[in-house]
Amino acid sequence: MRTQIVAGNWKMNKNLEETEALLSELSAKVPDTKAEIIVAPTFVNLATAVRSLQSSVIQVAAQNMHFAENGAFTGEISADMLLNIGVDNVILGHSERRSLFGEEDSLLEKKVNTALARKMRVIFCFGEELEERKNNNHFAVVADQLKNALFHLEASQWRQIVLAYEPVWAIGTGETATPEQAQEMHAFIRKTIGEAYDHELAEKVTILYGGSVKPGNAAEIFAKPDVDGGLIGGASLKCDDFLAIVKAI
Ligand code: PGA
User: Fold this and answer.
1) Domains and CATH numbers, the chain
2) Model-level pTM?
């Protein structure tokens, strides 16, 4: 049985008080589940999140990090800074980082290497844009994103990788991939990993779906055999919506 995860990417939302309020509500109401639950508040509230979730099953992730150990990188955050405050999960390659901040596969490869060397777990995001799907290029795009940033890894390092397939056209748009589209792509991703490594390894990789997952569509998407959970944006900002999605798994 693969690890199932529901992760909330809060993006640039929630100030300190709002973070504390949402976390205490989540901790109080969190259902009993075999799935791992992760939240990714903004950098300035990570230490608070770790502290307030100390006795909770809910884990904390960062939304990004720099690849360098330390140095003259104004505005950036290192792996050691995250580990030092108790954060050992990091989201890398989110489509907003790629499209708004120019992060390319070659940069992501470096970030992945640093995170893995520091024994962090990476939630690696990737997915095609609408134009690429319309041109029937989506499988090739996704295979390239995986190959460029991850296929240099050794098989043993994949234990620290969680994949999050997020078609860009479904992020924050209210338009979700159908459960069939998600399953089709997740099966393709597993097959691609199987060909690059082996079938056994591919079967063990947790692959999340992200893009407008809501309480109303989560169960259908999570029911697909190759979908192991979700990366949730908008709906992770409301306690009841996020926990309804957790329950759907
Ligand atoms: P969304 O965001 O759920 O608001 O579409 C998902 C994501 O960006 O990870």
Assistant:
1) 5-248 (3.20.20.70)
2) 0.97
